[in-house]
Amino acid sequence: MGLLDKVNGDMIQEKLSQGLADAIEKVSNEREEYYKNHSNPSKNEISYIIQSYGNKNAVISGGAGMIPGPWGMAASIPEIVAVIKNQMSMIYDIAKAYGHAKVEKELIIAVLFGAVGNATTSLIVVQGQKIMVKRVGARALQNIIKILGGKITQQMAKSMAAKWLPIAGAVAMATWSKYSTHQIGNKAIEVFSRSIEFENDEMLEINTPDLAIEDTDLSGSISKVKIQTLINLMKIDGHINEKEVQYIQNFIEKSNLSNEDEMQLIEQLGSSDKIKVDYSLFKDNHEDGLYLLIDLIALAKVDEKFDVTEKMFIKNIAKTIGFNENDLAELLN
Fold it and tell me: Which of 59, 94, 228, 323 pairs as cysteine with 318 (C-beta 3.0–4.6 A)?
């Protein structure tokens, strides 16, 4: 990772983390005040709640003004925070639908973590139909929120479109926000459908070795496979759009590739032949597979025509890398 990218990444993480800290405080107060004057939703309304928040978040992200550049998404931090604030409100509403009188901050954060990574075990432990929750002190909670901000920053940086392209980047962000909202909703159901107990002791510090923030740079190998797949998608309908060619050229120029790989990709871009792609790096790798599919969808939708051949191509890629069919359906809807 370049020094400038790291500085920008740290800045985004800091601003996003502060936004998350403010958001969780506001959500807790706003939703609690709301439910003083309104009845709880029913369990039958949960699907509608998730769908409604997902659509709302897609509109917020799709309308964000993406600025080209390695961290152009920095300008969209207010929209990203708005999306996550809505996701927190959704978690609160789902908890109320299951009859929980109080929705503690630890549970909201645990659900968010459970949907973006493998960090749920640090905060909650599932014991059959019961969930044990660790109470977290203010300092430990601040640390967890910072790590959550870093995880979200890292995930968004895996979208090539969101990093480099204004129009396709907004499409990628909209796809990400709707999909992640649905994932968080499903995790909230998993948590709040069980009985919940808090441990007596409060953690003043938290050990987070499994929450370490990964390098946000895409490896050269993953970048190359992504670009080859985007080239194949561009050719699939038999009509090569000049704008699509420019997008892919931009990816080639900006990605961390060797001169040999760059020359090979430029040659493949100009050829009419389909590229034979090795997807072994993406098999059973849900996160990188997710952002491969998000970038494919963003490129396919950028001309406002999502052709059936493009959809079939994306479905075949998802099947090849072992991506969950239900998750794919949420991405394509």
Answer: 323
Least confident window among 124-128, 174-178, 185-189, 236-240:
236-240
Nearest CA to 141 among 94, 200, 206, 186? 206
Question: How far apart, in whole angstroms, are the C-alpha atoms of residue 15 and residue 21?
Answer: 10
Its pTM stands at 0.85
Can you spell out the DSSP letters for 130-175? Answer: EEEEEEE-HHHHHHHHHHHHHHHHHHHHT-HHHHH-HHHHHHHHHH
Q: Which pLDDT does position 6 carry in this prediction?
A: 53
Of 287, 312, 317, give the one whose Cα is nearest residue 118.
287
The residues that bridge with 124 in the sheet, in sequence order, are 133
Q: What are phi and psi of 115, to 5 degrees?
A: -90, -20
CA gap 39, 21 in Å, rounded: 27
- For residue range 106-164, what is the model confidence (pLDDT) as tens digits? 899 989 987 776 544 468 888 888 988 888 888 888 888 888 888 887 777 788 777 77
What residue ranges in the chain does DSSP mark as E strands? 124-127, 130-136, 195-203
CA-CA-CA-CA torsion sign (23, 218, 10, 122):
positive
